[in-house]
Amino acid sequence: MFFHAHPDDEALLTAGTMAMLAAEGHRVVLVVATAGERGLAEMDPGDELGETRLKELYESAALLGCARVECLGYGDSGLSPKGGVADERPDNAFIDADTEAAAKALAAILHEERADLLAIYDPAGGYGHPDHVQVHRVGKRAAEIAGTEIVLEATVNRDPLVRLLKLAGRFYRFPPEFDVRTFEVAYSPGETITHRVNVRKYTKQKRASMAAHASQASGGDSDRTLAVMLKVPRPIYRFVFGTEWYVRRDLPPGARLTHPFDRWPK
């Protein structure tokens, strides 16, 4: 089971792993906390955008081979212009949800599916979106309740990422959300990562999953992150997005495993 905050998060961080596991015959379940109704798009934020993003989520999930998709139904908490928790957010915002209640809702699906593995985010929530941080808290607790043995924190190796962004910044003007300084403390340092999953065979599905979230490739005053990624030439895309990273906290840091179900020691 893969637990994400909003539609399109699965495409960015775990799509290759999901497609790989589905191709291997595993039952893959995708759960999102919110419909992402406060995301940027050419249409106004609200119920209409949430409905659109859920439709895109189902399309993405089908491309990746998911057997089931669920939305917990919490409100998208949004993000303040400076990062962090937005001042104005819905009454049922995920960031304000009771962690235990949300965890029990997720644990019920884990029980029903008899899931062997739960993928969440690292404690920083990747780049720090409040809903992503909440996914970590809720997912970790849900795994405890359900007795799910394997918990993987989806992340990015920030060491080469920061080097790449600094180099790219010499030639390209990134959109406002691409502040390199924030990435210096985002995600996870390479020394803590336990799983480096080679998904190059599945980058076609990963790219198609990204493209399914068309509403998130537009809107705002500059190029959106998703739009920029989809402009990357396919051979380079396969190289850049052909690895997905995870941290499993009950294993030694830097264990260097290559499959979500690898045992330690090999």
TrEMBL record:
<dbReference type="GO" id="GO:0016137">
    <property type="term" value="P:glycoside metabolic process"/>
</dbReference>
<dbReference type="Pfam" id="PF02585">
    <property type="entry name" value="PIG-L"/>
</dbReference>
<dbReference type="InterPro" id="IPR024078">
    <property type="entry name" value="LmbE-like_dom_sf"/>
</dbReference>
<keyword id="KW-0862">Zinc</keyword>
<dbReference type="InterPro" id="IPR003737">
    <property type="entry name" value="GlcNAc_PI_deacetylase-related"/>
</dbReference>
<dbReference type="GO" id="GO:0016811">
    <property type="term" value="F:hydrolase activity, acting on carbon-nitrogen (but not peptide) bonds, in linear amides"/>
</dbReference>
<protein>
    <submittedName>
        <fullName>LmbE family N-acetylglucosaminyl deacetylase</fullName>
    </submittedName>
</protein>
